[in-house]
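Page 37, continued from 36.
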C-alpha cells in the first residue's frame, strides 16, 4: 500500500507539472502529436542504437570497478544493468538505485559491498563527467556569444572545479564512510548491537570503495564515462532534430541544453520517470541557446517518451535475461 501511494503521488506530481508546462509553453496536445508524426523510423532506430551503446558502456564501467574475482560476464552484467536502470528510472525518489546491488548479488553472486562500491563510484564519475561537459559547453557557448549573461563564465569555471572535486571524491569515497564510522566510535554507538553491525559493515564498504577507486580502475572508469555521456547527448540531439529542431542546434548547444534536463531529472523528488521535471530542465536549457519555448517543450516531451520506451524495452529484456540465467 505504501509503494502504491508513493507511485500514485509520483503520477500526480508528473501530471501536475506537465499541465503547468503545457500552459507555460502555450503548447497543445495536437502540436505534440504532430511532432510525433514527424519522427521517422530511421531516426528512432539511430537513437535506439546509440542508447544501446550507452547501456553497453555503463555495463562495462560497472565491470571495471568490480574486483576481478567477482566480475560477471558482460552479458550477465548488461542484463542486470538494464533491469536496474528501469527501476532507477521509474521508481519514485530514486529508490530504484539500490536494485543494482540486489540484482548483482542474486544473479551474479557479487557481494553487496562490492556492488554498492561499484554503484557509488559510477555515480560519482557520472556527476564528474556531466559537470565537465556542461562546464566546457558553457564556456564554449559564452565564447561564441550564444550565452551573453555575465553568469556564464563563472558557472563554467565552477563546474570545472566541481568536476575535479567529484573525481577526487570518487577516488577516495571510502574516506566518507571511514569518517562516519569514526564518529560512531567517538559517540560509542559501535558498542550497541545495531551500531556494532553498522560499524562492521561500514568498514567492509569502505574497503570495497577504496578498491573500486584505485587509480587504475578509476581511470578506466573515467575513460568509459566520457564516451558514455557523449552518447547521451548524441541521443538527445538525434531526437531533438527528429522532433523538429533545426540544424542550427549543434552538438555543443545540445550538450549544454540537455544537461539541464539531466540535472532536473537527478532531483530526488520528481514525478513518475522524471515527467515534468526533465521537460522543465530541457526548456530552460534550450531557451538559453535560442530555441522557442513551444518547440523546446514539444521536442522535450517527444525525446522523453522515446527515452522511456527504450528504457522499458531494455529493462524488460534485462529482466527476461536474468530470469533465464537463474533457471540455468
Amino acid at each position: 500500500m505504501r509503494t502504491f501511494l508513493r507511485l500514485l503521488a509520483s503520477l500526480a506530481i508528473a501530471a501536475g507539472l506537465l499541465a503547468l508546462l503545457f500552459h507555460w509553453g502555450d503548447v497543445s496536445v495536437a502540436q505534440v502529436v504532430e511532432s510525433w508524426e514527424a519522427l521517422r523510423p530511421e531516426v528512432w532506430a539511430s537513437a535506439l542504437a546509440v542508447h544501446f551503446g550507452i547501456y553497453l558502456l555503463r555495463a562495462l564501467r560497472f565491470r571495471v570497478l568490480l574486483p576481478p574475482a567477482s566480475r560477471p560476464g558482460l552479458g550477465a552484467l548488461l542484463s542486470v544493468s538494464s533491469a536496474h536502470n528501469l527501476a532507477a528510472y521509474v521508481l519514485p525518489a530514486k529508490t530504484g538505485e539500490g536494485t543494482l546491488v540486489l540484482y548483482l548479488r542474486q544473479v551474479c553472486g557479487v557481494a553487496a559491498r562490492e556492488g554498492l562500491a561499484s554503484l557509488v563510484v559510477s555515480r560519482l564519475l557520472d556527476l564528474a563527467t556531466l559537470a565537465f561537459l556542461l562546464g566546457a559547453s558553457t564556456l564554449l557557448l559564452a565564447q561564441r556569444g550564444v550565452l551573453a549573461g555575465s553568469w556564464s563564465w563563472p558557472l563554467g569555471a565552477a563546474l570545472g572545479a566541481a568536476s575535479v572535486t567529484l573525481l577526487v571524491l570518487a577516488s577516495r569515497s571510502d574516506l566518507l564512510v571511514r569518517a562516519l564510522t569514526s564518529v560512531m566510535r567517538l559517540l560509542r554507538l559501535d558498542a550497541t548491537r545495531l551500531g556494532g553491525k553498522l560499524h562492521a559493515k561500514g568498514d567492509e564498504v569502505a574497503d570495497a570503495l577504496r578498491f573500486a577507486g584505485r587509480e587504475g580502475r578509476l581511470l578506466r572508469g573515467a575513460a568509459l564515462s566520457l564516451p558514455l555521456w557523449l552518447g547521451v547527448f548524441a541521443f538527445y540531439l538525434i531526437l531533438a532534430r527528429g522532433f523538429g529542431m533545426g540544424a542550427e542546434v549543434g552538438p555543443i548547444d545540445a550538450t549544454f541544453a540537455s544537461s539541464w534536463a539531466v540535472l532536473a531529472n537527478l532531483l530526488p523528488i520528481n514525478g513518475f520517470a522524471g515527467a515534468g521535471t526533465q521537460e522543465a530542465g530541457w526548456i530552460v536549457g534550450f531557451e538559453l541557446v535560442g530555441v522557442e519555448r513551444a518547440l523546446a517543450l514539444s521536442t522535450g516531451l517527444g525525446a522523453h517518451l522515446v527515452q522511456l520506451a527504450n528504457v522499458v524495452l531494455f529493462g524488460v529484456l534485462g529482466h527476461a535475461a536474468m530470469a533465464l540465467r537463474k533457471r540455468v
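DSSP finds 13 helices and no strands in the chain. Flag for discussion at group meeting. The mean pLDDT is 83.
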